Automatic annotation (TrEMBL):
Alphabetical keyword list: Cell membrane, Ion transport, Membrane, Transmembrane, Transmembrane helix, Transport
Main location: membrane
Keyword field contains Cell membrane: yes
A Gene Ontology cellular-component term: plasma membrane
Similarity section: Belongs to the TrkH potassium transport family.
GO MF entry, a single one: monoatomic cation transmembrane transporter activity
Pfam family, one: TrkH
Lineage of origin: Bacteria, Candidatus Aerophobota
Organism the protein comes from: Aerophobetes bacterium
Membrane topology note: Multi-pass membrane protein
Keyword Zinc recorded: no
PANTHER family per the UniProt record, alphabetical: TRK SYSTEM POTASSIUM UPTAKE PROTEIN TRKG-RELATED
Protein name (database record): Potassium uptake system, Trk family protein
Coiled coil: none
Length: 541
């Protein structure tokens, strides 16, 4: 392992991240020093972002000076390790503002929130602290476990803040400073397209190892051929085009939200767009996206951009360049077929309990939120008919398209598995038949097919293991299944104790750690992390 080369590239990444930190730092300057205090009556967050910025710079300098005399030789093994390190350091740095401002006093809670943001999972531990009315002392939440005589006993995570100008007590999201809310959504936006892509775009020194980083971050089994051809021959140019499309989608959604709903502030429009295009799902108010239920246009805009975030970004490039024939794509067609079929089923079952207008609006929103792995909630789907909940659970695993910000298995893998199954059926009665498996116009080589089978097997094992670990930690079965499905698919939408209107604050420390690890596994699609556990990976060449 060439540790000096890794340290050198890691230092460059941290320099980039420190530059990005200037954005939330400027936001904190605006809210803490420029606008009038009665408009933002919160403790200052400037010091937290200044410290985080300084810490990142120092860390970059340490890695820079320890990497002198590097040979600039960089291969696949180093790329895999670097990808994992980038995500680990990013999430640690992402947790610092939460801890320093005491928004989340428990480091595990702060790290959970950071990992959930960067991996675009969207699960949260934000919960207002509860106080005794008479004594003013903090008291726990006590909630009965599903189908059990036992109880969850847990405490809130967000301190109450008193507005000294109005003497109003602010709780939950209302007690969180605007710069922290911005940072929380911003890290989700950074993680959406992949922080590695930003790394490749900015650093010219990655011309040596950029290809390996690209493959470690994306989906190499679908990276070649006419089906998923590169936007440009060079990896750096590809990443650059992806970021331009990503920024463009975010700007368009922000403007649409702001100008179609007079009750949405520009701040809310920006942060909602961050969470939508990244298919992340963080909300910035207690009521979440459900607060816009009285504005159907707003919900339909969010639905549109959840779908946009779950579409392969290469499709936008073909659309912009006028290559419309390339939009006739089997994965794109199947993705929209999944939307139509699953939304239709949920609306149909939901209309047996509610009027059609409610069923169509809420059924469409929640199903698409689950399928695109965004995780927004506008309704209490926990009380919906069980078939609706089952469909939502299933579509979390389906996910969006490859090359998108979405989580889940990805539509292309479902196509590959189906065609492999179909070929197997043919071979049972025509063993001498020679049939080439294709994805679009591109043949699927045996190595790629093997990767898909292994991915599916690991996903099943991880889903079962995660559920068992949480059950042994005292989590009820239905909640454990929902949480494992949520974290491993980076959805943020789950059921029962962590369902709509609730958070993950009730989780014991061990279950929070399990959720953190599973979010990483899902975001990096298992192999980049699991390879680090094999002894042969650490052996010298």
């Amino acid at each position: 392992m060439r540790y000096k080369e890794i340290a050198k590239l890691l230092s460059f990444y941290l320099y980039c991240l420190s530059a990005i930190l200037l954005i939330p730092l400027c936001v904190s300057i605006y809210y803490d020093f420029i606008i009038e205090k009665h408009m933002h009556p919160y403790p200052s967050s400037f010091e937290a972002f200044a410290f985080t910025f300084g810490f990142t710079i120092i860390l970059a300098l340490v890695f820079h000076f320890t990497s002198r005399g590097t040979s600039k030789r960089f291969h696949r093994k180093e790329a895999l390790f670097l990808v994992v390190l980038v995500w680990i350091f990013s999430t640690i740095i992402g947790a610092l503002p939460f801890i320093i401002t005491k928004t989340l006093e428990n480091p595990i809670d702060a790290y959970f929130e950071s990992v959930s943001g960067f991996t675009t999972t969207g699960s949260s531990v934000i919960l207002p602290k509860k106080y005794d009315v008479q004594t003013g002392e903090e008291i726990p939440y006590v909630v009965r476990k599903a189908q059990s005589d036992e109880f969850y006993v847990y405490y809130g995570t967000i301190n109450q803040v008193t507005n000294l100008f109005t003497n109003e007590d602010m709780r939950g999201f209302a007690a969180i400073a605007k710069p922290i809310l911005f940072w929380r959504s911003f890290i989700q936006w950074l993680g959406g397209i992949g922080i590695i892509f930003l790394f490749i775009t900015i650093l010219p020194t990655l011309n040596i190892g950029g290809k390996f980083l690209y493959e470690a971050e994306s989906h190499p089994e679908f990276s070649e051929g006419s089906y998923q051809e590169n936007l440009r021959p060079r990896i750096k140019q590809t990443a650059s085009y992806l970021w331009k499309i990503y920024v463009g989608l975010t700007l368009v959604e922000t403007l649409l939200l702001y100008f179609t709903n007079t009750k949405i502030t520009f701040f809310e429009a920006v942060l909602t767009s961050f969470s939508t295009v990244s298919t992340g799902g963080f909300s910035i108010t207690e009521s979440g996206i459900g607060g816009y239920n009285s504005h159907p246009i707003t919900l339909w805009i969010i639905i549109l951009f959840m779908i946009c975030g779950a579409i392969n970004f290469g499709m936008y490039f073909h659309l912009i360049t006028g290559k419309f024939k390339k939009l006739l794509n089997v994965e794109l067609a199947l993705f929209f077929m999944f939307i139509v079929v699953t939304v239709g089923l949920v609306v149909w079952k939901l209309s047996s309990k509610h009027d059609f207008a409610y069923s169509f609006m809420q059924g469409s929103f929640q199903t698409i939120s689950a399928l695109t792995c965004t995780g927004f909630s506008t309704a209490n789907y926990d009380i919906w008919p069980f078939p609706c909940q089952a469909i939502m659970l299933v579509v979390m695993y389906i996910g969006g398209m490859t090359g998108s910000t979405s989580g889940g298995i990805k539509t292309a893998r479902h196509i590959t598995l189906f065609r492999a199954f179909k070929q197997k059926m043919y071979l049972l009665f025509k063993p001498d038949m020679i049939k080439v498996l294709k994805l679009g116009d591109s043949p699927i080589d045996p190595k790629s097919l093997n990767n898909v089978f292994i991915f599916f097997w690991v996903l099943v094992i991880a889903s079962v293991l995660g559920t068992l670990l949480m059950i042994f930690d005292g989590i009820d079965l239905e909640t454990a299944i929902g949480l494992t499905s949520c974290t491993i698919n980076n959805v943020g939408l789950t059921f029962r104790m962590a369902g709509p209107g609730n958070t993950c604050a009730f989780l014991p420390v061990f279950s929070k750690i399990v959720a953190i690890v599973w979010m990483f596994l899902g975001r990096l699609e298992f192999f980049a992390i699991l390879i680090l556990l094999t002894p042969s990976f650490w052996k010298t060449r």
